């Protein structure tokens, strides 16, 4: 087997990733840790988080996690307090990754659907970026990454609100970059 060349690493950096226990989300968290970052993730489901934390401990990955429903403003603030405490007031990477799907057409969606999906998929990333800014600045720079979906480009008949939030996240990331 050929030796893999490591072209870059994240040793000594810190990262916070929303929703990091399944699929691509989990792969992002684990790759950051494998590259040397100290990572904190959050998810809504405590048993899912505990399962991943056990796995990561066995793999000797430098990962921690907490339960957080990022659709809640106060819980996002508590999350950033936790991150600040864990990382001594500094953060190098914020990955706004959490998203909630809703598969209903426009005529079947209700106001609560719109509020929940918007709070989770759009508002959370904006607010977390705002409250993480002092931590990112304290690290001497920092990066904010927004993860969005193909639904920002391709229309799906049963995902009107979800698709709209993903278009908005794309625009938000571009505007925040300015």
Q: What would you say this structure looks like, in words?
A:
The structure is a single chain. The protein has 178 residues and is of the alpha/beta class. The protein has a single domain, classed as Rossmann fold (3-Layer(aba) Sandwich). The protein has five helices and five strands, in the order βαβαβαβαβα. The protein has a five-stranded parallel β-sheet, sandwiched between helices. α2 links the parallel β2 and β3. The chain is globular and about 50 Å long.
Which key phrases capture this entry?
alpha/beta; Rossmann fold; 5-stranded parallel β-sheet
Percent strand equals 5-15%
pLDDT < 50 stretches: none
CATH topology: Rossmann fold
Number of domains: 1
CATH superfamily: NAD(P)-binding Rossmann-like Domain
Give the N-to-C terminal Cα separation. Answer: 44 Å
Outline the biggest β-sheet.
5 strands, parallel
Q: State the helical fraction.
A: 40-55%
Report strand order across the widest sheet: 3-2-1-4-5
H/E element order: EHEHEHEHEH
Question: What is the structural class?
Answer: alpha/beta
Number of helices: 5
CATH class bucket: Alpha Beta
Radius of gyration: 17 Å
The CATH architecture term is 3-Layer(aba) Sandwich
pLDDT average, as an integer? 91
The tally of beta strands, per DSSP, is 5
Shape estimate:
globular
């Amino acid at each position: 087997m050929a030796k893999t060349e490591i072209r870059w690493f994240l040793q000594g950096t810190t990262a916070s990733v929303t929703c990091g226990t399944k699929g691509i989300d989990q792969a992002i968290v684990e790759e950051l840790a494998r590259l040397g970052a100290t990572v904190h993730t959050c998810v809504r489901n405590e048993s899912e988080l505990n399962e991943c934390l056990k796995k990561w401990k066995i793999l000797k990955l430098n990962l921690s996690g907490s339960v957080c429903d990022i659709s809640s403003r106060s819980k996002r603030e508590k999350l950033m307090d936790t991150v600040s405490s864990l990382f001594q007031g500094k953060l190098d990477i914020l990955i706004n990754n959490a998203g909630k799907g809703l598969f209903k057409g426009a005529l079947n969606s209700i106001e609560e659907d719109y509020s929940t999906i918007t709070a989770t998929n759009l508002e959370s990333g904006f607010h977390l970026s705002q409250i993480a800014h002092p931590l990112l600045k304290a690290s001497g720079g920092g990066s904010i990454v927004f993860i969005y979906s193909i639904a920002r480009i391709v229309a799906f008949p049963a995902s009107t609100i979800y698709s709209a939030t993903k278009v908005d996240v794309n625009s938000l990331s571009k505007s925040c970059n300015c």
